[in-house]
Each structure stands twice: as structure tokens, then as C-alpha cells.
Amino acid sequence: MDPLSEMLALLGTQSSVFAGLKAGGPWALDFPPPEGIKFNAVVHGTCELSVDGEQQPIPLKAGDCFLLSRQRAFSLGSDLALPAVNCETVYRHAVNGIAHCGNAGEFFLIGGRFAFGEEAALLFDALPAVAVIKHGSEQASVLRWALERLAHELTQPSPGSSLMVQHFGHIMLVQVLRIYLAQEASGPPSWLLALSDPRLGSVLQAIHAAPARRWTVEDLAQVAGVSRSTLALKFKQKAGASPLEYVLRWRMQLATRALRNSQVTISSIAQKLGYDSDSAFSNAFKRIMNCSPREYRKRQNAASM
Q: Which Pfam families does this entry report, sorted A to Z (predicted)?
């Protein structure tokens, strides 16, 4: 499994919601900060998007998509100078997940919201608060296809539509992240930025394929086809951590999933991640998670009750 797929699978979707909006005439809606990651795509028509903390409104047209990776309030409308209506007043009357505002024949937008666990920061903190994908790019072709299919399932539901909507929504999320990776050549150090570099991507792939291996910087430099010093420098610049620090962090991501989702013994988890003793595993875990594996499992069990 490639690193992006594995990361999304590791995070797991705690919940997801999909809905649509049809509008027309003069209109403007205010939306509260979303709980989790939110994306919307314009099926037809045009609108303006304003996000708290961003200086200028963003014009959107058919095929454009935007992803919100932070909990910030936002507004959509034909003209954002108009008095905005709270979105709850229109979405409470939604039919089959489609809300209507004004003359609901000029504009159609669909979107989804994904709630992930606390580990989502490793992936989504790398994204800007709002990422806009324009319809004209070649990479957006898959996104447009999924958008059309998702719109069809929302507006013309049939047996199995709920599952289809979930799958098309996930396809759109993955494609937005792919497009961001293809377009983003610079930015603050992050796991996602490292993945966008072909050589570092191969290193991440190797680490994810064998997390229990006793990796050295020399081993990882051979995977990347560069010198030890070059790898150490590039990895730090792109990922914001050393290669071996990343190995440790990835192991702890796998450990937290095992502690949350299974009753496997801590000794078994330690062995599967390449640790010779429970104490070595516990010390590594405390370094990253600020608590012991046993304490972490106890907290997670209490939170799920």
C-alpha cells in the first residue's frame, strides 16, 4: 500500500456527511466552522467563497473544488455583500440531502465532511486553511468524473446510493490531495510535502513497507539513491524531521492504532514494531505520546464508553 493510502487507512473515518445546495437569484449563506475536513465542489453556476482569516473572497465556477482543512467559518453566495442567512435555516429543510435557497435552479454545489481522529494532524496540518482546485487542470479530470457521479447519486437516489455517495466522496478527497501533491513544490516542512518529492516518497514507501526494520540513514539513502548527508538535509527540509525520527513517529502511529482498535498485548505490539523489549517500546512511546502505552490504551477505552 502506498504511503498516502496507508495514512488515510490508518486515520480511519470516524464519520462522514455528504450534502448538496441548490440556489439562485441573490443569495448568501454563512456556515459554522466544520468539524473535520470539508470539501465542496461546484456542479454548475458560480459563487463567491469567503473563509475566516483569508483576505480576499475566492470566485468559484462549475468544476471548481475547495477543501477546508481548518475549523474556520466560511460564507458562500452569489454576492457576499448581501446579508447572509445562517445555513441551518435552509439545510433543515433539505430533501435527500439537498438544500434549496432562493431560485434553486442557477447554482448547484455538493460537498462532504470527514471527521478523523487526533492523528489526522500528521496529514492535514500540511495543507493550507483553504485549498482551491480549479476545473481547468488535467489532473482534475478524475475529480470532475467523481463529482458528476456523486451529484447523480444525491439528486437521483436509488438502492445502494448511500454507499455509492460514501465511495465517490472518498475518491474526491483522495484526488484533491493528489492534485495538491502535484502542484505544491514548496511550503512549510510536512509529511505531505516530503511525499511530493519522488526520492523522499520512495523513502517513505520503504519505511511504511517495513516499519519494524532496523533502519539506518545509510539504508534509507540507498533507497533514495543519494548520499547520507543529502538525504538527511533534504528530509529535514521537506518533512521537518530526520529520517530516523520519522521512522519512530510512524511506528508510534501504528502503535496507537493497535492500542485503540485491538486487545493485542503491548508485548506483541512492541515485537511487531521491531522492539526487543517492552521497556524500549514504552520509552519510545512516551517520547512521542507523553504517556505509556498502557496509559494510552486506558484513556482510549474510557473515552469510548
A: Cupin_6 (PF12852), HTH_18 (PF12833)
Nearest CA among 271, 259, 270 for reference residue 301? 259
Nearest Cα to Cα of residue 172 among 198, 191, 145, 152: 145
- pLDDT category at 71 given cuts 50, 70, 90 is confident
CATH of region 192-303: 1.10.10.60
Which residues lie across from 114 on neighbouring strands? Answer: 16, 37
Task: Answer whether 192's CB lies under 8 Å from 240's CB.
Answer: no
Q: Regarding the domain delimited by 3-183, which CATH topology (the fold level of the hierarchy) does it fall under?
A: Jelly Rolls (2.60.120)
Q: Which amino acid is at 269?
A: I
For residue 59, the SS3 value is: strand
Intrachain domains 3-183 and 192-303 with the same fold: no
For the chain, the average pLDDT equals 86
Name the residue ranges covered by the structural domains of the chain: 3-183, 192-303
> Is the model's pLDDT at 150 over the cut of 90?
no
What is the β-pairing status of strands 28-31 and 74-77? antiparallel
Query: Residues 269, 281: contact at Cβ < 8 Å?
Result: yes
- For residue 101, the SS3 value is strand
